[in-house]
Specification:
Length: about 160
């Protein structure tokens, strides 16, 4: 399993490098998308369009917020600190918990990857908005988990067959 995982990581790195060479890089950790959310200045012609624009703005902030939350930091505070700083590459290093220049720290995303993810998300959202009905799996309810089995059981001494009175 370890060899396969290493091979997958090398493949991922190779593909990311190719994508970066093709279209360039942006600060990673969701910083580029977080800053892109500030660039939304259009207003909708009606309430539905305005709601859609607001949803896109919040969605653009989600990656940075989720990365911060996964690192155990308060997502709103991290996003606020990033947006307060005017440096275009300023962000949060989730591994160290420090703020700084994301590119200098080596935390980058290939533009092609970010662009493709955004286009694919918009495409799926567009399909969902124009679809009259959708079929999805119902979320599975998790049981209470483990615990001791009920009943008296057989004691606790293995090899003592026939002793469950």
């Amino acid at each position: 399993v370890e060899v396969k995982e290493k091979k997958d990581r090398v493949d991922d790195a190779l593909n990311a490098t190719r994508a970066a060479v093709e279209e360039g890089i942006v600060p990673g950790g969701g910083v580029a998308l977080l800053r892109a959310s500030l660039a939304i200045t259009v207003s909708g012609a009606n309430s539905d369009q305005t709601a859609g624009i607001a949803i896109v703005g919040r969605a653009l902030q989600s990656p940075a917020r989720q990365i911060a939350a996964n690192a155990g930091a308060e997502a709103s505070i991290v996003a606020g600190k990033i947006l307060e700083n005017t440096g275009p590459t300023f962000g949060f290093n989730a591994q160290t918990g420090e703020y700084g220049d994301m590119i200098a720290m080596g935390i980058v995303d290939p533009v092609k990857v970010v662009r493709t993810a955004l286009q694919d998300a918009a495409s799926v959202a567009g399909l969902l908005v124009t679809t009259e009905a959708m079929i999805a799996e119902a979320p599975k309810k998790e049981s209470a988990g483990g615990g001791m089995p009920g009943g008296m059981g057989g004691g606790g001494m293995g090899g003592m067959g026939g002793m469950d009175f």
